[in-house]
Amino acid sequence: MDLGIAGKWALVCAASKGLGRGCAEALVREGANVVVTARGVQGLEATAAALRALAPGVEVRSVAGDITTEAGRAAALAACPQVDILVNNAGGPPPGDFRDWGRDAWLAALEANMLTPIELIRATADAMAARGYGRIVNITSSAVKAPIDFLGLSNGARSGLTGFVAGTARQARLAARGVTINNLLPGSFDTERLRAGFASVAASSGRSPEAVAQARRQLVPAGRFGTPEEFGACCAWLCSVHAGYITGQNLLIDGGAYPGTF
Questions:
Q1: Which residues pair with 37 in a beta bridge?
Q2: Which whole number is the average pLDDT over 121-132?
Q3: Whole-model pTM over 0.70
């Protein structure tokens, strides 16, 4: 299937590894030019080189910096001639117990996982509408639908973004002019983030990380953790010309782990 996004420009945040990288790889395979961001220069440049090797005819630009800061966002946007596709992503806040989190921890979580995506949407959505095409995908978490007790910071911040998107995506000046805004809710994917969560649970429970991982794997009907590559493929399709009638939605990708009907 031709996704119809060859030649378009995509800004993919936190793309040096994990799910962000999976999305960037899928987009360049479809012929989209990408600007990738991350804080770590070495990892980002390695990813950019790998992306160029995947699709030699595609332009890949890398911008090292913290996307949660005003300067980081400005640099990323300046590197992208126009943003046709925006993939919002940022490392999740640390796991733990809510009793240990003060105001600063909450503000940092909100800045990274709610306010930064909103600022990038604000900076790009109207220009997308003026051109008649735009795809905004926010990588959030399955915890928005089924909260995880030790990820309280993430539960709260990402739920705030979800509420914002629910209203904004339905504005006629966006939805009726070819701009969609959706959230992808990953379940358990084989990333550093997932392994860090297992280590945290293991440290507090006296079990090994391997035992914690196996217990989590048994909760997934698919019998395994997802891969960044298959997550990226879902993202690329949602960014395609074929997904123009899908907006304001929360798409759960979790191997069947969520037990509910809705």
A1: 63
A2: 98
A3: yes
